[in-house]
Amino acid sequence: MTALYVVIPLLVAGAVVVLVATARSRRKETADLLVERAEFARNAGGIEYSNGSGRPSFGYFPTEGRGEFPQPFDYAVEFVRGSTPVVAFEKRARKQSPGGTNTSALTYESVVEVPAARCPRLWIGPELLAVQNLELRSQIVPELAVGRQHRKLVVASPDADFARSAVSRETLQWLADRLGSWFRPVVLEHGTLRTNARPGDRLTTANILSTADLLIELLEVLPQHLR
Question: Which residue did the predictor score with more confidence, 1 or 81?
Answer without folding.
Answer: 81
